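Appendix C reproduces, verbatim, an entry submitted by the partner laboratory led by Prof. M.T., so that reviewers can inspect both the input and the predicted structure.
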Amino acid sequence: MVELYLGIKWLHIICACIGFGSNVTHLFWIIAANRDPVHRANILRLVKKIDDRMAVPSYIVAVTCGSIMWFWQWPGSSSWLIASVFLTALLATAGIMYGPFMKKWIRLANGETEGAKDGQALPVLARRLTWLWGGITGSAFLILFLMVRKPMLW
């Protein structure tokens, strides 16, 4: 039984690292896209593809494994665990919101929508999404910190 738990824990850690690593690299790619209007649409498509095929599946596996470990071993009253679950819910909500905005951003970068004609929508959306992605990355870092340190918060 201990071996199974450690296997689940190992998978949880690997998937959390893959998800967090993807988030960090996305932030750098998004900043690069903001600075390079010529290649912006291609960079954003790459970010979306990495997110859809790597980050999201790894977070789903990490949350599943974390839930199994929580019910298996950890008491539900652990403050670091409650904070992690709350932050994970916020992270999931932000990630779900990010997908449609990312598609709109790619369309704007390609000049496919009406908002691209006036030139105002793209910089505003780019700024908002960059801050949103920074928040997602910061939340993922905080969850990793809580997972590793397991501090008593209250």
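DSSP finds five helices and no strands in the chain. Additional entries are available on request from the coordinating office.
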